[in-house]
Design a protein that fits this description.
- Helix content is 45%, strand content 15%.
- By secondary structure, it is an alpha/beta fold.
- A seven-stranded parallel β-sheet has the order 3-2-1-4-5-6-7, sandwiched between helices.
- Strand 4, helix 4 and strand 5 form a beta-alpha-beta unit.
- The radius of gyration is 17 Å and the shape is globular.
- The N and C termini lie far apart (37 Å).
Length: 255
Amino acid sequence: MTNKIFTNEVAIVTGAGQGIGFEIARQLAMQGASVILNDADEALANLAAEKIVKENGTCIPIHGDAKDVAFIYEMVEKAVQHFGCLTLAVANAGLSLYGNFFDYTKAAFNSVTELNLGGSFFLTQAAAKQMRQQKKGGSILLMSSVVAHQAHKDLAAYAMTKAGLEMLAKNLVVELSQYQITINTIAPGATLTERTLSFDDYISGWSTVTPMGRPASVSDISNAALFLLSPVSRHITGQSLVVDGGWTTISPTPE
């Protein structure tokens, strides 16, 4: 993608202290965007923003709960206060709590749905209101998962939220297109992050069952995300892009 394609763009990326979110924030900044980087962990948010600034990117950290509606609106206000507008929003913050369906608790269910669905819904709402007011359009990206397309044991609640986000993007085409706001989702497959690399045999297990022979890197996911956020995809909206090395075509899980 052309360098600095996001010059004059202002982005919020939630859950961006590490992993996929961090790489999306970093790549946006490297290509010219001013970024509000959110994470629930203050130290992690500060460190992530420092890394981006050291690479000559423009990035401000803001720690807080990405499911808290008041805080979501504060992030939008901060973007406008510091950079004058908001043109991009990435609802990356999410939670996956594995658990057998028959034993899954209400507390676990609420934790997953409040962040994955509620946090994404209200970030979209707050960002879209600001973009509508600006009358210059914008792009919103929701983070789905391959489990929105294929079943995976012990992830019923999580999968439900991710499928819901894909329907949200489709539904909001009706609401947002008149304001030149696009909304799409990325559905990553197995991806190498700080969290997944802590699992035993993650690389070897997913390499075996992925047709392309390896899990995704965070750059694989961020490249797709930046495409859907960029001006070159302005006529794409309401879509979900699966980035999984072909896994959903065969869908085995590692032993």
